[in-house]
Amino acid sequence: MNWLRTILDGAAMSLLFNAVVGVGFLLWPQAYSTMFPKEIRKAAAPYVDQRDVKKMKLLLYPLYLLMFLYWGISAGAAGVTGFWNLFITGYVEMTLVSVSDFVILDCWLPGKVRHMIRGAEGCRAWERREWLKTLAIPEHALGWTFLVCPLSALIVAGVGSLF
Question: What is the rounded average pLDDT of the residues 114-131?
Answer without folding.
Answer: 92
